[in-house]
Amino acid sequence: MSASGSSGTFSLQDCDVIGFDLDHTLCRYDLKETSRLIYESFAQYLVEHKGYDKDLLNLTPTAWDFCFKGLVVDLEEGYLVKLAEDGTVLRATHGTRDLSQEEIIKHYGPKREWKHFNSLNSTFTRSAKYYFYDNYFDLPGALLCARVVDVLNKLLKIFEGCEVTPDFWKDMVAAIDHNYNTSAFREDSGWYFPRVKRDPGRFLQPCSASVRRWLRGLKENGKILLLITSSHSDYCRLVCDHILGKDFEDVFDVIITNALKPGFFSLIPQQRPFRTLVNDVEDSEGLPGLEKPGWYSQGNWPHLHDLLKKMTGRVEPRVVYFGDSMRSDMFPAFSFGKWETVMIVEEMEGEGVARANPAPSQPAEKKSKFEDQAMKTPSAASQQWGSYFVDVQRDEGGEERLRLTWCSHCIHTYSTMAIPSIEAIADLPLDYKFPRFSPDKPSTTGYYPRPPDTLLKREENQS
């Protein structure tokens, strides 16, 4: 429920419960190292298990400019598109090749309409026709997907309209499952988990002292703290040990792993029961409900809501949830849970927002060739795709205007506010009043500590 009503501000002081996603929210990753590892993990699977061209394993640092959050891949034809707030195609590629404005109009019509937009925009559900890349754990797959289409074009000598076969996407999904399935960590299988287990400090960034003090302060002020992650319990434990310390379980009242978001927020009859864990193995019998705080697996929002009512003594507990994914965190928590939502938007740091408590640089012996050759971090603006927040739309007459991207519009619609990291607010008093997003306020309102450069420029042009 709303923590500050219609006042136009939001304060953590007014919340009873404060929840967090884990990856890329409470835990920050070295995006360059992690993205490179994820790409290699997926590509190795395609090459070794599915017989794909070994050239997919050869990746130059400059290729990472293509890696951009918010893209949608059309699985029927191999196009990747960047959308405006109303579904207009702002930019597009076929594989990694840019489409010209004329090609975009030829393919999508004079209004440049992407035909599946209404389905994606209203439900965020997965589809056999498209895939939305909105988090850093699958984002390198967008680059791999585009490069596979390039390979198909090269082999088939087709440079437009190459159809991505269903088998190709099945192979991509299999690569994800091979590396991320719930038993992969325990079995040391795939390429991702073994590398992170062997050298977590290369990929995970410990929480700053200010964030740890902030979490303790929330507890001391009577706030109930939740951790809700789709990661399995064994991986969650490794991450939390590294970023918070061995006593991390004392920080949270309730920990939910393998939450399978966004399904966690689904209402009856789709809900999954909570399960207890013994040595990171789920009990086969689901629980009829939650009776007490603790560490659980899977579960559903209605049963968690019942527990929070008991813990707070409120019919409608006031909950805020921090997350980085629109599909898995913001949209379902806002739409089903009716929670306040704070979106972690690392792209703000690429547009004039200073990073709070920057992570120490890697020792020279640990730096990869990608760092040495200036690999672009995936959260930075892209030469090929532009800004995450705003882009130029050119009409048939050549006239240009600045448009909000669909991702930017979703942030304003389903988030209470947006921050680049938890560090950005960790030193503020608990009763600090943040301006919140509102449809009757400028699009720059709701970002803390300041709006991204491109949004400020757009507001200046409109005033």
UniProtKB/TrEMBL annotation:
<feature type="compositionally biased region" description="Basic and acidic residues">
    <location>
        <begin position="364"/>
        <end position="374"/>
    </location>
</feature>
<keyword id="KW-0378">Hydrolase</keyword>
<keyword id="KW-0007">Acetylation</keyword>
<dbReference type="InterPro" id="IPR023214">
    <property type="entry name" value="HAD_sf"/>
</dbReference>
<dbReference type="Pfam" id="PF05761">
    <property type="entry name" value="5_nucleotid"/>
</dbReference>
<keyword id="KW-0479">Metal-binding</keyword>
<dbReference type="InterPro" id="IPR036412">
    <property type="entry name" value="HAD-like_sf"/>
</dbReference>
<feature type="region of interest" description="Disordered">
    <location>
        <begin position="437"/>
        <end position="463"/>
    </location>
</feature>
<dbReference type="GO" id="GO:0046872">
    <property type="term" value="F:metal ion binding"/>
</dbReference>
<comment type="similarity">
    <text>Belongs to the 5'(3')-deoxyribonucleotidase family.</text>
</comment>
<dbReference type="GO" id="GO:0008253">
    <property type="term" value="F:5'-nucleotidase activity"/>
</dbReference>
<feature type="region of interest" description="Disordered">
    <location>
        <begin position="353"/>
        <end position="379"/>
    </location>
</feature>
<dbReference type="InterPro" id="IPR008380">
    <property type="entry name" value="HAD-SF_hydro_IG_5-nucl"/>
</dbReference>
<protein>
    <recommendedName>
        <fullName>5'-nucleotidase domain-containing protein 1</fullName>
    </recommendedName>
</protein>
<keyword id="KW-0460">Magnesium</keyword>
